[in-house]
Amino acid sequence: MTMNVPSLLFVLALLAGLSCKQQTATDPLESFFYRAVQVDGQSSANQTFRGVRATPIITLSFSAPVQKDALGTSVRLTQTSTAQTVPLSYTLSVGDTLLTITPQQPLKAFTAYTVEVLPTLLSQRQTALNSTISVNLTTALDSTDKFARISDDALLDLVQKQTFKYFWDFGHPTSGMARERNSSGDVVTSGGTGFGVMAIVTAVNRNFITRQDGLARLQKITNFLANNAKRYHGAFPHWLNGATGATIPFSQKDDGADLVETSYLMQGLLTARQYFNSSTNADEIALRKSINALWDGVEWNWFTKSGAETNLYWHWSPNYNWDMNLPVRGWNEALITYVLAASSNTTPISKTVYDASWAQNGRMANGNSYYGIKLPLGPAYGGPLFFSQYSFLGINPHDLKDTYADYWQQNTAHSQINYTYCKTNPKGYAGYSADCWGLTASDQQNGYSAHEPNNDNGTISPTAALSSMPYTPTESMRAMRFFYYKLGDKIWKEQGFVDAFNLTNIWFADSFLAIDQGPIIVMIENQRSGLLWNLFMSCPEVKKGMKGLGFTSPNLN
Asked: What is the pLDDT of residues 281-335, one digit of tens each?
């Protein structure tokens, strides 16, 4: 069949008309998609907004005019953790391509919310949105004070006293030793107990408890250590059963002596020996005798593999011998181990071991500057802040020098670098500021890690800034005020500040750890009175040992 030209043109026109009618009705060729989102006029590359105010204005732009009737069922704002829906108000503008939504009630502070726009949203031509839109919001800090303002001295008293409860109220009922953490049951820690002993001395001196009560608790601890706790060549394991004294393995092969943890314990016991110094009180005389027996019983030089090496080793196992094979090398938290090993009355190490193993004949030096601050020793940016805290609960770094460093410069630089890193906040984590800083080993969301500038996931540990008080008194006090007044409803609990928090992930720990709570009390006290520094540095064997390693300080005279 043939068709003349006018007929063909008519048919084509008819088909074209039918096509236009079909496109107008459902518009299958229209592309309906989301273009951009802003919260209070700000954009985000990954659709995540932090520090959002309680009544944000959220705008979303689309490629085509939006059908208003579909907004109520297709656009929602929910609290992320509870899925609770927040009622919204909607406004369309710019030819109905710009949607503005606002919550009808203020959002909660420090809370994560999600804005979702579902594909059920239609354009005015009945085209469905091409995909789900999800926008993450985290609201800002509620900057109101959570507690009444008090003087800084009163706040320092309060923080020390409340934190002390971890060791006093929560000490193991049988042994008196410090539990590893608030959920550890019978698991007690040798190093954390050393910190707790120093906390008890502080509490007696501050009149939080009586001298007799403090003495009685220390007698319980030392009697348990002498008569029940497992020892290996005089050294204690990292963890023990607080009821029986049996070793609890820290890891498979770490089931025997831990020389560094033993050092922390001895640091505390020697400090207590110097404090309870009565020449007439029979209980204080007996306590000193017990401490001396424990102290003299540690075979320090045996941990050089019975003198076969110039390295001092961290672990020994009755089942795996020296398999852990971890030399105690600097720069890290273990300077106290070498100081005490050199100070031993019975089994001292030589300066050669200190130079070759700890200092690695100078290879522990750094010498670089970070944020214009020169760091004498250790890894880039200094590592976690406990490096400048654990050994220096007793060792006074003021005017302390040897071949390798000025230790006041070292610890102050380390703390200032950590503070400046957090204040600078190169990774853009929520909350980091001059008020909120401090990276060290602590719990984190779903685990535990040694946080520092080279291992930073947004987790702040209150112990980091607070235990730096002697080195950064202004910055640490500023952090304390922020933690207490601004975050107090989240992190201030029955045993002081919780172990850590992450304001990016809106996570707050519910844990307390002995090795983090203890330094808070002790280092605040060292800043306030120098109490623990003065006591530990008064030990005659410590003076002799440190001089033998080449240290100089007015405190060693």
From this structure: 999 999 999 999 999 999 999 999 998 899 999 999 999 999 999 999 999 999 9
- What is the spatial distance between Cα 466 and Cα 132, in angstroms, rounded to a whole number? 45
pLDDT tier at 28 (50, 70, 90 boundaries)? low
Nearest to 116 by CA among 52, 47, 55, 45: 47
Interval 468-488 mean pLDDT: 98
**Cβ contacts of residue 45 below 8 Å, gap of 6+?**
none
Structural domains in the chain, sorted by start: 31-139 (2.60.40.1220), 152-552 (1.50.10.140)
* Residue 415, SS3 per DSSP: helix
Query: Are the beta carbons of 404 and 365 closer than 8 angstroms?
Result: yes
Question: Taking 50 as the threshold, does the pLDDT of residue 477 lie above it?
Answer: yes
Q: Cα 217–222–226 angle (5° rounding)? A: 150
Distance of CA 68 to the CA centre of its chain: 48
Tell me phi and psi for residue 350, to 5 degrees. -95, 165
pLDDT for 153 equals: 98
- The b-or-e profile of 231-247 (16+ CB within 10 A means b, else e) is bbbbbbbbbbbbeebeb
Q: Would you tell me the crossing angle of helices 211-227 and 190-205 to the nearest 10 degrees?
A: 160
Torsions phi, psi of 412, nearest 5? -70, -45
Strands 48-52 and 133-139: parallel
Instruction: Name residue 117's amino acid.
Output: V
Per-residue pLDDT reduced to its tens digit, 401-421: 999 999 999 999 999 999 999
